[in-house]
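Troubleshooting log. The previous run stalled partway through. Resubmitting the same two chains, unchanged.
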Amino acid sequence: QVQLQESGPGLVKPSQTLSLTCTVSGGSISSGGYYWSWIRQHPGKGLEWLGYIYYSGSTYYNPSLKSRLTISMDTSKNQFSLKLSSVTAADTAVYYCARGDSDSSPVPYFDYWGQGTLVTVSS
Amino acid sequence: DIQMTQSPSTLSASLGDRVTITCRASQRINSWLAWYQQKPGKAPKLLIYKASTLESGVPLRFSGSGSGTEFTLTISSLQPDDFATYYCQQYNSYCTFGQGTKLEIK
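Second attempt completed without errors. Output:
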């Protein structure tokens, strides 16, 4: 059973970089053809896909965040990470990591999710 | 960007009711549509992918249909555990979600 767990600071100051890590257990992130993804949810709002890193290491970002977002992976630790720069209060949200599967589709749907972590941007 | 519009935004129903939630895409997405259930304070849970394929372990009272631009999620007989918010997601181009449908107890 694949499990994902987000970790990182719950409070980030405006203009700084938000950094989160997702630790995966029950499967290797470097095999299997999966898309290791980040999704966020503003308080009381819907879901916003941020981006993913494919098992091969290639990345794909939401165009609205592309200039501020970096997703990377550390296969030795079976982790992948998100860095979002120049944050503002609008980046306050619950951040989820998730595993994406494609079933031959152009981009993935998400079959396993972490529990989510609330990140607040405030001075 | 492909916009996903769900209706209704809120749905009140009773135990045992049959309910349907609709998701419309702003352009054709073939059958690349998934449905998720989310309960307060929890991560979304995948119910259906490829418009009509039930994820393993999901009760058979859930079903999905549609292709192109119009899709539906149907719950055949509401159970207490089904009261939650439901989201559709297109995965034809980038990934975008609908705004959600909150299913409430009448």
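Takeaways: Residues 45 and 67 of chain B are 22 Å apart (CA to CA). Chain B touches chain A at residues 1, 32, 34, 36, 42-46, 49-50, 55, 87, 89, 91-100 (CB under 8 Å).
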